[in-house]
Amino acid sequence: MKKLSHILPKPHGWLVGAVSLYLLSFLFAESFSPTMSFKLEISRLENYIHKEQREFSSLVADTSLIGRLAQKTATVSEFNNLIKKSAGLFVFNKSITGVKLSFWSNQKIYPPDDLFNMSDTSYFKQIENGNGFYLSIKKTFADNNDHDSIVAVGMIPVMYRYFAGLPDRFEYSDDAASKISISLLPTNYPVKSISGDTLFYVSPTIQPDKSSDSLATYLKLIAVLLLLIYLHFMAEKTAKQYGFWKGIIFLFVVLVSLRLISYYTPFPVNLRQFQLFDPKIYGSNLIHKSLGDLLINTILFCWIILFAWQKLDKTGFYNIPVGKKGMIGCIASLFVVVLTFLFSYIIRSIAADSSISFDVINFFSLSPFTVFGFIALSILAVGSRRIGDDDGFGPAVESVEGPQRFLP
């Protein structure tokens, strides 16, 4: 053990390695992940739309300017400022006789006719007989003159789509079309307005190669493995310096806390992305949601049991006063009975609540999940065996034949 301690890094070295690998995984994902690249491109698209929405809101907030545009009395400088904008502004005079266009800032597009029958809000659609996809924003003002109202319409270009063999092009970026494309069906990549409403969906132009995502995941898993090794060394150190009970309590509390975090957060990674953690294959209860959860729980259980089994006999725990032997024996027996029923439930559940075949006679019905199921049961058996081991748990009692254990 001393030679091994010279070879392996000191406990804090494991922690430094774990933190370094975990941070490296995030850096790798940010820099090289295709999925992250899509999300960044969507963020750029949303920022462009939000900027144009804010500009339109600021523009229509100047009601005197809108009035001058409707009355065709705007100055040349005001007109020049409007035609420089990428979004088109259209001002209409609406009366009982119809809708009349009074001002337009560009000639690339014209608002769809059905927009005037809608309430004031934002609409996204592909303009028929037009040149692509636009976000239309409508704002209606009351008119004090002869007209019933003034309608201001903003046409924010999102993606140009021509019918002459030209490639698609987004207004905010010339190379965005090589990464994303507007989808007419819902996808996992929504684009939202400044108010948080979903406007439309996009999809990647090329399906991502997930190798970089996988590497980031592996780095996180290795980091967690190093963290667990560090925690084991710290538990050993705590038990040596402050006593067995503080060491076992430290190990138990830390492992249970990390396990609870993994249940409710994607730490260290989103475990549900792995088929081993698919509830369709096996799912028993909130604790054992999948075969992977059962495997992790059995490993942690066996870890704590072996840690205690290795050290408990050296603590003098079995030197129990004669008056307390009966009470300790009853508690130990009750503990074993509870664990026996719990283990029986798990064994029955893994056969009854799963789609895993354990028919070893029919070899071709077996699957890799069968192997993982047997591994989980084997680890569980090792832990339960140590609980009742003649050299393991169980307080000693004196008899004619010498010291014996309460737990056979």
Write the layout of secondary structure elements.
Blueprint: H1 2-7, H2 11-32, H3 34-61, H4 63-70, H5 76-83, E1 88-95, E2 98-104, E3 122-126, E4 132-142, E5 149-160, E6 169-170, E7 180-183, E8 190-192, E9 198-204, H6 211-242, H7 244-264, H8 291-312, H9 325-352, H10 368-387, E10 396-397, E11 404-405
Antiparallel strand pairs: 1-2, 1-5, 3-4, 4-5, 5-6, 7-9, 8-9, 10-11
Helix pairs in contact: 2-6, 6-7, 7-8, 8-10, 9-10
Describe what you observe in this structure.
The chain folds into 2 domains: 170 residues, no CATH class; 195 residues, no CATH class. It is elongated and about 105 Å long. It is of the alpha+beta class and 408 residues long. The two termini are 31 Å apart. Strands 1, 2, 3, 4, 5 and 6 form a 6-stranded antiparallel β-sheet that branches. Strands 7-9-8 form a 3-stranded antiparallel β-sheet, with helices on one face. The chain has a two-stranded antiparallel ribbon with strand order 10-11.
Key terms for this structure?
single chain; 408 residues; alpha+beta; 2 domains; 6-stranded antiparallel β-sheet; 3-stranded antiparallel β-sheet; 10 helices; 11 strands; 15% strand; elongated; disordered C terminus
How many strands, which pairing sense, and closed or not: the largest β-sheet? 6 strands, antiparallel
Give helix and strand order, one letter per element, not per position. Answer: HHHHHEEEEEEEEEHHHHHEE
Classify the beta-strand content into a percent band.
Answer: 15-25%
Q: Helical proportion?
A: 40-55%
| Number of contiguous helices | 10
Helix/sheet category: alpha+beta
Shape: elongated
Rg from C-alpha positions? 34 Å
- The domain tally reads 2
Rounded mean pLDDT score: 81
Poorly predicted regions are 390-408
Give the total of beta strands.
Answer: 11
Q: In whole angstroms, how far apart are the ends? A: 31 Å
